[in-house]
Amino acid sequence: MEALINHIQRFVKLSEPDKDLLYEMLRSKECKRREFLLKEGQICHSNYFVVKGCLRMYYVNDKGVEQIVYFGIDNWWLCDYRSYDMQQPSQYYIQAVAATEVIVWDKQKEEIILQQIPAMERYFRILMQRNMAAAQQRIKYINEFSGTERYLHFNEMFPDFVQKVPQYMLASYLGISAEFLSKIRAGKV
Amino acid sequence: MEALINHIQRFVKLSEPDKDLLYEMLRSKECKRREFLLKEGQICHSNYFVVKGCLRMYYVNDKGVEQIVYFGIDNWWLCDYRSYDMQQPSQYYIQAVAATEVIVWDKQKEEIILQQIPAMERYFRILMQRNMAAAQQRIKYINEFSGTERYLHFNEMFPDFVQKVPQYMLASYLGISAEFLSKIRAGKV
DNA sequence: CGGTCTCTTGACGGAGTTCAAAGCTAGTGG
DNA sequence: CCACTAGCTTTGAACTCCGTCAAGAGACCG
């Protein structure tokens, strides 16, 4: 829980009563490898803050293939915002890639917290704006670079992360086939 | 300016003094066709709310080709958030596709407004969260559908918009070549 | 009308997919 | 702690979607 409080305080100030309220309203959860936090068809009732470990958010396309949209790693929030905001059934799965510790932000308690702690409204505004910047950048990468270039670039940016997740998940995230990624790595391309 | 006030009030309540402050701090701007609001290398000092018309945000790739990342249409905000937040030079151009009326939100005045009107913090938090939902959906589309499918889908969703922008811009936004889009339309694919 | 944008068409090539099969690795239960 | 099996990675061949290039035909604006 300290991890989240620290993260929040990188952007806004929290009083002691604010922190007490957060401790009261939020809960920590240990996820086992392959445990699901959300499945297709369910409504996404929570936003998850990853303290340690790795989550993936993916959907299954019409050919039955898993397509990863996001990874959630240390100090990131992960959520199907469409489902969360509109309270609609989700198209996605959220699953722990490895054993993962998350902090659960329940939608049910959202309004209470935001009313009590206006700073949290600001925290999420700033955070969402940064997420938007990242999403814009992501779309740019997808258009600008070939699959090969995307892998090389990703590998350069997150060398340690590449080691930790299965290659086929990385391929899925990068929008290329696992076979092709294997060939890139072998230098056969 | 009413357009923006109305849009804000769809999400949060504004008092009369709040509105007065917004009238004072924001300014309206008429953009001519092809007028630039931002160019590559400049710092993005403003967020633009499109009242009427159409903006495009694009970059020029290493082959000198314009790649459109976003369109901004009625009641949407458009901004290079990366440049805006970090006050870094932008990689993008923002240009009016047609004559366009925008409301300019200057970063310089951001803190003043947000401190005076906490509801605006909430407004942008909600809005950014919706933008994130849209960005997630966009990435899903890019992975899930072929160029042909993306066009057909877009055409179905925004039939009127498709009529209004040049085809080569639409092709760029959809991530396909103008030639290929032409062939899709001709049914030669 | 003249020139600059914009759209169309066809031929060719290449990046990446799909399928199939085999080799490797690691987790789990006996 | 070993063996077995499911999960993961590698390889190659055939194929496909779509980009690139080039050239021409409209269309719009001054």
Topology, element by element:
The structure is a homodimer.
Chain A (H helix, E strand, L loop, with lengths): L1 H8 L6 H10 L1 E5 L4 E3 L7 E7 L2 E6 L5 E7 L4 E2 L2 H6 L6 E4 L3 E7 H10 L1 H27 L2 H11 L1 H6 L2 H8 L3 H8 L4
Antiparallel strand pairs in A: 1-8, 2-7, 3-6, 3-8, 4-5, 4-7
The structure holds a DNA duplex (30 and 30 nucleotides).
Question: What is the gist of this entry?
Answer:
Chain A has 9 helices and 8 strands. By secondary structure, chain A is of the alpha+beta class.
Overview of the molecule:
The structure is a homodimer of 189-residue chains. Chain A is built from 9 helices and 8 strands. Chain A is α+β, with helices and mostly antiparallel strands. Chain A has a domain at 2-109: Jelly Rolls. Chain A has a 4-stranded antiparallel beta sheet with strand order 1-8-3-6. In chain A, a hairpin with a 5-residue loop joins strand 4 and strand 5. In chain A, helix 4 crosses helix 5 and helix 8 crosses helix 9 (178-185). The structure holds a DNA duplex (30 and 30 nucleotides).
Task: Note the main attributes of this structure.
homodimer, 189 residues, alpha+beta, DNA-binding
Roughly what is the average pLDDT of chain A, rounded to an integer? 94
- Characterize the biggest β-sheet of chain A: 4 strands, antiparallel
N-end to C-end Cα span of chain A:
45 Å
Shape of chain A: globular
Radius of gyration of chain A: 18 Å
Oligomer: homodimer
Q: Low-confidence parts of chain A lasting 5 or more residues at pLDDT below 50?
A: none
| CATH architecture type of the domain at 2-109 in chain A | Sandwich
Please trace the helix and strand order of chain A, writing H or E for each element. HHEEEEEEHEEHHHHHH
The helix content of chain A is 40-55%
Q: Helix segment count of chain A?
A: 9
Describe the strand arrangement of the main beta sheet of chain A, using strand numbers: 1-8-3-6
User: Helix- and strand-based class of chain A?
Assistant: alpha+beta
Using the coordinates shown, work out and report the CATH topology of the domain at 2-109 in chain A: Jelly Rolls
Question: What is the CATH homology-level superfamily of the domain at 2-109 in chain A?
Answer: Jelly Rolls
Specify which chain pair forms the largest interface: A-B, 33 and 33 residues
User: Briefly, what CATH class of the domain at 2-109 in chain A?
Assistant: Mainly Beta
Strand content of chain A: 15-25%
